[in-house]
Design brief:
Elements (H helix, E strand, L loop, with lengths): L1 H8 L3 H18 L2 H17 L3 H17 L6 H14 L3 H16 L4 H46 L9 H18 L3 E8 L2 H8 L1 H18 L5 E4 L4 E7 L3 H16 L14 E7 L7 H17 L5 E3 L3
Parallel strand pairs: 4-5
Antiparallel strand pairs: 1-3, 1-4, 2-3
């Protein structure tokens, strides 16, 4: 048995099992029930190390029965400890912790130093596992917090602080990417150039804080009226750009008209008495001859200027 323990300590699990089987044969020949129970209990640990947890449990149950028949309770602590280790290996953590609790009570009252040393080692393992789990949770929380902060910073860098829509740099980056996708897929793309009519008058008559509220409300209203894959961005003081992917000119005109009529119907009475405003919109569709986004925007601006020149609060398209 001592040679078996020594083989265990050296990590020679199969050697330990062979030695225990030899001792078991000797104990059976002598009909020494105590030695048979002791060998069964000793064999449990090598089977646990080999991850044969159910086989270990059967041997532990045999040892428990044999010790009980002899009226021996001295090994209750080790039986509970080995049982807990096997249950833990099977993933039955609640049952394992219950067995560890029994082992702690039994082994603390025992004078067997080997048993107490094993229990102390197990305590250190539990403590290390608990600390590692706490550390992982803390690190995970820090990672999530940092990722959230980085995402928030990216959003802030791409968002117009007054209106909450994309800023000029962001909308132009999305526009460049939209043109690349449209040309690669052969799908249409339309752009709207949008401008608030007589916005200088709003600022002059009601003040810049009032004008800021008007811009924010118009931007939010237009964003809500667009489709989920369209994108709205602020390109200047009262100027906005809208990207309409996978959209032909006639459909874009319909969307532009919806934006115009929705803004015209807005109620600004909570901001200032008698305040009302409208928008004018220029609409263009991407052509093969367009050099890039800036040329597309230039054509949309030309259509917008025609809308302004034709009385404002209207939609004009570049069909050239």
């Amino acid at each position: 048995m001592q040679q078996g323990y020594l083989a265990e300590d050296r990590g020679q699990v199969d050697v330990a099992l062979d030695l225990y089987r030899t001792v078991l044969g000797m104990a059976n020949e002598r009909a020494d029930n105590y030695d048979v129970a002791s060998v069964h209990l000793a064999m449990a640990w090598p089977y646990i190390l080999r991850k044969e947890y159910r086989r270990a449990l059967r041997i532990i149950d045999a040892a428990r029965t044999q010790f009980a028949e002899l009226g021996d309770r001295a090994n209750d602590g080790m039986i509970a400890l080995r049982n807990g280790q096997a249950r833990a290996g099977l993933g039955e953590h609640a049952r394992a912790m219950a067995e560890y609790g029994k082992a702690e009570v039994a082994l603390q009252s025992s004078r067997n130093r080997r048993y107490q040393a094993l229990l102390q080692a197990r305590r250190w393992q539990w403590t290390a596992m608990a600390l590692a789990g706490i550390l992982l949770l803390l690190l995970g929380g820090l990672v999530v917090r940092q990722l959230t902060r980085m995402r928030r910073l990216r959003e802030m860098a791409a968002t117009d602080p007054l209106t909450g829509v994309a800023n000029r740099r962001s909308i132009e980056q999305h526009g460049d990417a939209a043109i690349v996708r449209a040309r690669a897929s052969g799908l249409p793309l339309c752009v709207l150039a949008l401008d608030v009519d007589h916005f200088k008058t709003v600022n002059d008559n009601h003040g810049h804080p009032c004008g800021d509220q008007v811009l924010a409300r118009i931007a939010g209203t237009c964003r809500d009226a667009l489709r989920h894959f369209d994108l709205l961005g602020r390109t200047g003081g009262e100027e906005f750009l809208v990207l309409l992917p996978d959209t032909r000119l006639e459909r874009a005109l319909s969307i532009a008209e919806r934006l115009r009529s929705t803004v015209e119907a807005l109620d600004f009475s909570d901001i200032a008495d008698g305040l009302a405003t409208t928008i004018s919109i220029g609409v263009v569709e991407l052509r093969a001859s367009d050099a890039g986004l800036q040329e597309l925007i230039a054509r949309a601006d030309s259509a917008l200027y025609r809308a302004k020149g034709n009385g404002r609060n209207r939609v004009e398209a570049d069909r050239g």
